[in-house]
Amino acid sequence: MKNIFNKTSVKGCYKDVVDFFSCGLTPHQIADKFNITYSDVIFCLKNYGKFRTSIYVSLSEQQVNDILNLCDDGKKVYEIADQFKIDRHCVGRVLKRYGRKSKHSNKKFDHLRKIPFSKLHKEIIVGSLLGDGCVHKQRKKSNNLYKYYLSHSKKQEEYFLWKFNGLSPFFTKYYKIDAKLKTSDKIYQQLKSTSIGHPEFKRYYDMFYDKDGTKHVPKNIDLYLNPLVMSIWFMDDGSLNSKGRGLKGSNLRICSLNFTYEDHIVLKDAIKACFDINTKIGAYNRNGRPYYYISFNKRNSILLKNLIEPYVLPSMLYKLNLTKH
Fold it and tell me: CB within 8 A of 224, min separation 6: which ones?
């Protein structure tokens, strides 16, 4: 056996070894091809290919066939790897070499997907979907799982973390980004998180979204409204009305601007039926498009405040700071 790594022009040899390994050849096959030692191939891969040591496995022809058959039978990569006591990346390389599509899964997430949503989970989801929350189908066409997207500004960090923790264990991490306001070039910090894919999110997607992906209010939303759901919706989209009669902040409104007028009629009727609170549908035009919101007069603003205040987080109480007039 010759040792190509003692030659002066070794860079090209290193690249060839890495390329052949990436294409699916085992270290023993590469060693035979270059007439070098197995240990030289491993040295090359470890130091120049940056591959994980645990995937340097030479499989027999029978083992390769068994892996392919298990894949064809629907086994996932981690299941095959566990059966053969080898690294998942090694299994993935074999499947890629022989044109099989790898079926990946995460054991932890598979377990989480079997956990049903609690009452609190459902209330946070419904309240948020009336507000700023959204659900989307995973991009992968191979599954029918949906994810929930959570996003708030850094100023609402307490509220964001309350939702994040309240929806545990279906959210595992979050991150901060710099975002730009749509109406100006001002930069602000935003907190974002995406849930795991879970089959129960599809139910809420079907409730709140049309076939074309447009969000709407479910006709039976009155079955889901309670003080906590109302408080979440208000913390998302509620505000003091600065243009009402009397002093600034004399009544409340919910800026449900993304819903249609018909959706607002459903909301107005549901609030009346569930809490005996009267509302009005306000409107304004922007860029030639009408936007609607739910408005409460002074008396009904007090009724709404008394209903939801026990559930509103301390950092969001400023939204309920009605003037005493």
Answer: 122, 126, 218
